[in-house]
């Protein structure tokens, strides 16, 4: 039965079954996917390092060349070229081919155009190009140089997709096209993104590499400093560029060109944008900016309009009166594509294999290709010169023996017999024999594929020449006019020049240095004819936008409560009032809390926080919690600074340049200890803080002021005592030192204020007591003495316990704060001057058990002006 079943299967079916191999679906899918991936990588997405072209671009340019669509010929319809490309070389969608043509014709996409377009090829606003039936194209002049040598067999050819014709595997540009115009492509599992560069700079780097092959990437970067984009703008910083050139991966930070102008009449600032980063769509950018303004994510812009025309780009961004254009511009850089990163990924095909290349390797591969092109071109020219010389040799022999040649032809019964007789005869010709002797290897002067027993025979003066079949036929076809004396001379001269060319080509092919010289000369010619200036300006000092650049500079008031709540708000929320008013609430407080400190400064100023334990912390004012309401509590300072348990902020000091050599920080403690330390000792902010002064047990820091070399310090006690001495009497100490005695305290007293004066003749001491009394006393009324004394009387004991003493001038503004949070701002000139021992006058009407908590002087330039309506009862 088994035999019967087997008989049902034919012998062919058995053979087929043996040939079938079994494969899992995973193996089949894997191999198929890899085949597809490599096809995309090699045949579509990645450029060749030698000519910088993807296959579609290479085929477009070659098809245009075959169609005679050169730069000096009339334009042809884009549709015609697209049809040629599709029909002969690239059987894909017509949209893909036309899109590639459009990109090569767009000035805002290509740094150097390869296609000269006529018609609508799109815009930087994202407008699409017109249909291919409406636009016309031809090769750009530079594209002519890309294919200059392909007719001389300088590159390999391969069959097209159906084998009906040939196409080049690579073009032969005589400039580094991949770097000059860049390339972008996404393959399977890899991508490339190479920025465009300036042609003159790139060729300069090539010339350096030809002259000095051991040149480093750093050497090359002295020639190629950064990419050069067709849309100009700025290259903001070179750190990412250097990394990209060194490793093949990096980033280029691009910025548009934006200038700030101020209107002569309105004095309002306006941002004018005239250039955009590469690949940024202007229309979408403006739309996005408008959305940010509507959503209140971008403040300070009152109007936005596009005034671009055929003369160039012009985007106008009008700034509000109360905004700063520089801050708005920084926000535009941070939040929009007015600043954009170009991720560099220099991947290209090297002999068909995708590789990541650094700058030097890209140039080396181009130069190697260029040397090969020149070598193969010389071989082609040598072959053509040999063929020409071969023909001229026969004509030279004929004109030298014209009578014999004519006699043989006349007597021959037929042309074929005449040819044979001419070939069989040994001829003498001094010109030919002499020229061939110069070649030393006469066979190099003839085409190797010419068959037959012909050429130079014999040696020396006895040498004779035998004609080849092609030479004999040329003699038979020669017109009689060429037998004239003039034509005979031309043949000889032409032959001598051709032999000289052969000798030169042989010398080139035998000497690599001559090939290098040719490559160098051709590069210099391209640089001279097509080189131009950079478009993208380089900002080598460019850095990342810091958050500080996005913060508007404005005057701020920082308040600190006894319970440790801190906040910042604009100082223009207060108006100047006369003394005796009820004041405004500076900050809301919890039950039992009081405002203990207030400081006025710019939002970008650095605030140095000195704590009761003698430690120092740093913060910019814009980093502090900001509130629009005066009645808000603020934020606990322990959430802002890393304070330890029991530690409190005792002094807030505004500082500018911390590296100054002419300033010191003068500190004083409650027990009368003083110390001064150079400001630059505090120039390195640390998150955890540092020790500013070592504090004894039971003591605490009460003040810290900036002092100069000739400054004078004053200490004031709560019992009404004061001492004045020169800060130079206190030697400069390190950060961790304890300090020295500044005042000898009486029983039960403690130091409440520290003042440092630079102009004692113009300044006064404003003394304020807890009962609301205050007085002004000239600084010079306090006798200058040595530190460590008991001090002089500062105010009458009847005025009450001293809360604080501060330095003021006649036109100063001061803010006085009560322990309930009420505040009054007064001019010091409204407080009469008094001697040291007087009571003073009432500064504010206190309510019930209310007491004065603090008093602060405001900077002169920010004083005055009705900023808020007067408080009720003022």
Number of domains: 4
Radius of gyration: 45 Å
Could you give the distance between the termini? 124 Å
Report the mean per-residue pLDDT as an integer: 84
Structural class: alpha+beta
Proportion of residues in extended strands? 15-25%
Overall shape: it is elongated
Number of strands: 43
Q: Describe the largest sheet.
A: 4 strands, mixed
The CATH superfamily of the largest domain turns out to be: DNA gyrase/topoisomerase IV, subunit A, C-terminal
Uncertain segments are 580-584, 860-874
CATH topology of the largest domain: Neuraminidase
Q: What is the correct CATH architecture of the largest domain?
A: 6 Propeller
Write structural notes for this entry.
- With 874 residues, the protein is an alpha+beta fold.
- It has four domains: 120 residues, Topoisomerase II, domain 5 (Alpha-Beta Complex); 81 residues, Gyrase A, domain 2, CATH 3.30.1360; 153 residues, Topoisomerase, domain 3 (Orthogonal Bundle), CATH 1.10.268; 310 residues, Neuraminidase (6 Propeller), CATH 2.120.10.90.
- The protein is built from 20 helices and 43 strands.
- A four-stranded mixed sheet has the order 14-9-8-19. A four-stranded antiparallel sheet has the order 10-11-13-12, covered by helices on one side.
- α5 packs across α6.
- The longest helix is centred in the middle third of the chain and has 42 residues.
- The chain starts with a helix and ends in a 16-residue tail after the last strand.
- The C terminus is likely disordered.
- Keywords: ATP-binding, Cytoplasm, DNA-binding, Isomerase, Nucleotide-binding, Topoisomerase.
- Pfam families: DNA_gyraseA_C, DNA_topoisoIV.
- One of its GO terms (cellular component) is cytoplasm.
């Amino acid at each position: 039965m088994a035999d019967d079943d087997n008989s049902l299967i034919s012998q062919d079916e058995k053979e087929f079954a043996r040939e079938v191999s079994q494969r899992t679906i995973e193996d089949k899918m894997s191999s198929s996917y890899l085949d597809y991936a490599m096809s995309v990588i090699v045949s579509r997405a990645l450029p060749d390092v030698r000519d910088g072209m993807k296959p579609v671009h290479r085929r477009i340019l070659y098809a245009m060349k075959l169609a005679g669509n050169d730069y000096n010929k009339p334009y042809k319809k884009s549709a015609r070229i697209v049809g040629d490309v599709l029909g002969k070389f690239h059987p894909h969608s017509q949209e893909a081919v036309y899109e590639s043509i459009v990109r090569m014709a767009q000035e805002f996409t290509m740094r150097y155009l390869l296609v000269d377009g006529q018609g609508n090829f799109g815009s930087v606003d994202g407008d699409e190009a017109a249909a291919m039936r409406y636009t016309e194209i031809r090769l750009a002049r530079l594209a002519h140089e890309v294919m200059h040598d392909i007719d001389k067999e300088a590159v390999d050819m391969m069959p097209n997709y159906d084998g009906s014709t040939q196409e080049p595997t690579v073009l032969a540009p005589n400039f580094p096209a991949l770097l000059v115009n860049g390339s972008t492509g996404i393959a399977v599992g890899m991508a490339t993104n190479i920025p465009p560069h300036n042609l003159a700079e790139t060729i300069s780097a090539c010339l350096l590499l030809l002259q000095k092959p051991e040149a480093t990437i750093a050497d090359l970067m002295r020639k190629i400093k950064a990419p050069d984009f067709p849309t100009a703008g700025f290259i903001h910083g070179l750190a990412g560029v250097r990394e990209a050139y060194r490793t093949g991966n990096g980033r280029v930070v691009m910025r548009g060109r934006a200038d700030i102008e101020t209107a002569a009449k309105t004095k309002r600032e306006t941002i004018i944008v005239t250039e955009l980063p590469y690949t940024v769509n202007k229309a979408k950018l403006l739309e996005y900016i408008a959305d940010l303004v509507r959503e209140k994510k971008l403040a300070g812009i009152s109007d936005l309009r596009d005034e671009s025309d055929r003369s160039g780009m012009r985007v106008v961004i009008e700034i509000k009166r109360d905004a700063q254009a520089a801050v708005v511009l920084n926000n535009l850089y941070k939040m929009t594509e007015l600043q954009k990163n170009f991720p560099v990924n220099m991947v290209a095909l090297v002999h068909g294999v995708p590789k990541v290349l650094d700058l030097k390797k890209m140039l080396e591969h181009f130069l190697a290709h260029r040397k090969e092109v020149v070598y193969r071109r010389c071989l082609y020219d040598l072959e053509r010169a040999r063929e020409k010389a071969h023909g001229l040799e026969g004509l030279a022999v004929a004109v030298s023996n014209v009578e014999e040649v004519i006699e043989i032809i006349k007597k021959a019964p037929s042309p074929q017999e005449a040819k044979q007789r001419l070939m069989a005869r040994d001829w003498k010709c001094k010109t030919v024999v002499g020229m061939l002797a110069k070649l030393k290897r006469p066979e190099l002067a003839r085409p190797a594929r010419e068959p037959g027993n012909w050429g130079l025979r014999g040696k020396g003066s006895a040498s004779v020449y035998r004609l080849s079949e092609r030479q004999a036929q040329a003699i038979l076809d020669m017109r009689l006019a060429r037998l004239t004396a003039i034509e005979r001379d031309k043949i000889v001269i032409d032959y001598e020049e051709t032999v000289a060319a052969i000798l030169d080509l042989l010398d080139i092919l035998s000497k690599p240095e001559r090939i290098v010289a040719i490559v160098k000369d051709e590069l210099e010619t391209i640089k001279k004819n097509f080189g131009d200036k950079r478009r993208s300006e380089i900002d080598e000092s460019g850095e990342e936008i810091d958050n500080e650049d996005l913060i508007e500079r404005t005057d701020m008031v920082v308040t600190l409560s006894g319970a440790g709540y801190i906040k910042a708000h604009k100082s223009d929320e207060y108006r100047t009032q006369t003394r005796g008013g009820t004041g405004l609430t500076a900050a809301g407080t919890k039950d039992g809390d009081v405002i203990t400190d207030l400081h006025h400064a710019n939002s970008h100023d650095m605030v140095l926080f000195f704590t009761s334990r003698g430690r120092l912390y740093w913060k910019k004012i814009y980093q502090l919690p900001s509130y629009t309401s005066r009645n808000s509590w603020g934020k606990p300072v322990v959430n802002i600074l890393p304070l330890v348990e029991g530690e409190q902020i005792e002094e807030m000091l505004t500082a500018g340049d911390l590296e100054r050599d002419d300033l010191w920080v003068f500190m004083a403690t409650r027990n009368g200890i003083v110390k001064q330390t150079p400001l630059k000792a505090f120039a390195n902010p640390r998150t955890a803080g540092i020790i500013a002064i070592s504090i004894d047990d039971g003591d605490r820091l009460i003040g810290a002021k900036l002092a100069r070399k000739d400054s004078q310090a004053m200490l004031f006690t709560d019992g009404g005592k004061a001492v004045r001495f020169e800060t130079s009497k206190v030697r400069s100490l390190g950060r961790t030192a304890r300090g020295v005695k500044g005042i000898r305290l009486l029983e039960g007293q403690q130091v409440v204020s520290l003042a440092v004066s630079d102009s004692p003749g113009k300044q006064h001491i404003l003394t304020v007591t807890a009962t609301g009394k205050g007085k002004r006393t000239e600084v010079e009324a306090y006798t200058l003495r040595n530190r460590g004394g008991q001090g002089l009387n500062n105010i009458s004991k009847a005025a009450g316990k001293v809360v604080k003493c501060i330095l003021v001038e006649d036109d100063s503004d001061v803010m006085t704060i009560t322990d309930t949070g009420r505040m009054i701002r007064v001019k010091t000139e409204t407080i009469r001057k008094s001697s040291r021992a007087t009571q003073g006058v009432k500064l504010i009407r206190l309510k019930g058990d209310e007491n004065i908590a603090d008093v602060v002087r405001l900077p002169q330039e920010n004083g005055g002006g009705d900023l808020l309506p007067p408080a009720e009862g003022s």
